[in-house]
Amino acid sequence: MACENIGNCAFASLISALLVFFGVGVYCGTLYRALQIFITQILEDIFGFNVPWLEVIQIVFVVIGVVMGLFAILLLVFGFLATGATRKNVYSGNKCIMGGRVSAGFFMCISYLLNLVWIGMLGVGVVPVVAYLMVSSRCDNSVYNKYQTGQVTCINLNHYGIYRNQSYIAIGQLPPGKESVCDPNDLRRLCDKIAEAGPLFCVACAGAIVIIMGMTNFLLTLATNYTRLKISKELTEYRDAVDMEELELNSRDGGSR
C-alpha cells in the first residue's frame, strides 16, 4: 500500500514546482529590494530625480513572479493527476484521455513560452549586474582607495546609459536633479548603496536561472505525461477490441450450443 502511494506521487513535477517556488521567491524578493534601493536611495536621494517606468517594472516583475507561482501549482496538480494509478482513475475513457492529452499539449506550449520569457528576463537582469561590476570597480579604485587623498573624482550616470528626463528641455526648462556626483560624502554614500543593491541583482539572476531549470523540468515532465496518455489511449482501444472479440466468441459459442 505504501509503495502504491509512493508510485502515485509525481516526484518530477514536485521537484519542478519546488524549484519554481524557490526561484520565484528569491527573484521577487531580491529584485524588489534592489530596485527599491536604486530608485529611492540612489536616484531620488543622491541624484535628485526619479524614473517612473522603473517603478512600473518593479511591480510588473513581481506580478510575473506571482503568476509563475500560480502556474507552477497548476502544473503540479496536473502532474499528480497524470501519474501512476491516479492517471488510470482520472483518464480512463477515450474522451478523458483525449482531454488529458490536449491539456498536456496546452501546458507544454505555455511552459515553453514562459521559459523563453524568463530567458529574456535573465538577459535583462544581467544588465544591472554588469553595471554593478563596472561601478563597483570604479568605487574601489577612485572612491574607497583615494578617499583620504583629497583627489576629486566624479561618477556620471550618462557614462552608464542613464539619462534624466529630456522632455524638460523641449519646454525650455532644465530637468530636475543632477547627472554626476563629485562630493566625497555623496560618492561614499553612492558606492555604499551600490554595494548593497548589486549583490541583490546577482541573486535575482540566480533565482531566474533556478526558475528556468524548473520550467525546463516541467517541459520534460509534460512531454512524458503526454506520451503516457497517448499509450493509455492505445491500450484502452486495444482492450476494448479484445473485449469485443471475446464477447463475439462467447456469443458464437452460446449460439452453437
Automatic annotation (TrEMBL):
InterPro entries: Myelin_PLP. Keywords: Membrane, Transmembrane, Transmembrane helix. It comes from Mytilus galloprovincialis (Mediterranean mussel). Coiled coil: none annotated. PANTHER family: M6, ISOFORM F, MYELIN PROTEOLIPID. This is Neuronal membrane glycoprotein M6-b. Pfam families: Myelin_PLP. The chain crosses the membrane at residues 12-39, 59-81, 102-135, 197-223. The lineage of its organism: Eukaryota, Metazoa, Spiralia, Lophotrochozoa, Mollusca. GO terms for cellular component: plasma membrane. GO terms for biological process: neuron projection development.
